Amino acid sequence: GGLNGDEQPVIYIDGTRIENSEFEGFGVGGQGIGLLADLNPEDIADIEILKGPAASASYGTNGANGVVLITTKKGQLTPGRGRNMAIDYKTVVGWNTQSFDYSEDDFVTAEDANA
């Protein structure tokens, strides 16, 4: 169960919501595991747990079962530095040209075709 004993809480790692629903597979012996199992405890700088009105006020109905805010050491900003982001993308632009000029004689109705 979650913080209220009925459902999973909402989990954010460095401000990004993650889905932590359990999955079972052959490689884990049928035991359910979630994505939090991939998080190295040594990488965690801070964990904040919000529940009740505090969670609902900040996260609405999504926070009804509590909110877990995890900040990793890598997710912290270096003092005096801002955030930098670069996006690279490629695209192909083109257009089609009509390879054949059609006339009204090229189009027939089903009735004309079956006549």
Spell out the blueprint of helices and strands.
Blueprint: E1 10-13, E2 16-18, E3 44-50, H1 53-59, E4 67-72, H2 110-113
Parallel strand pairs: 1-4
Antiparallel strand pairs: 1-2, 3-4
* Proportion in β-strands: 15-25%
Radius of gyration: 28 Å
What does the average pLDDT come to? Answer: 76
Q: Pick out the low-confidence regions.
A: 1-5
General shape: elongated
What spatial order of strands do you see in the largest sheet? 2-1-4-3
Largest sheet: 4 strands, mixed
Count of alpha/pi helices: 2
Distance between the termini: 71 Å
Which structural class do the helices and strands define? mainly beta
Oligomer: single chain
Task: Please provide a written account of the structure.
- By secondary structure, this protein is mostly beta strands.
- The chain has a domain at 10-72.
- Helix content is 10%, strand content 17%.
- It is built from two helices and four strands.
- It has helices spanning 53-59, 110-113; strands at residues 10-13, 16-18, 44-50, 67-72.
- The protein has a four-stranded mixed β-sheet with strand order 2-1-4-3.
- The longest helix is centred in the middle third of the chain and has 7 residues, at 53-59.
- It is elongated.
- The protein starts with 9 loop residues before the first strand and ends with a helix.
Keywords:
115 residues, mainly beta, 4-stranded mixed β-sheet, 4 strands, 10% helix, elongated, disordered N terminus
Summarize the structure.
This protein is mainly beta and 115 residues long. The chain is built from 2 helices and 4 strands, in the order E-E-E-H-E-H.
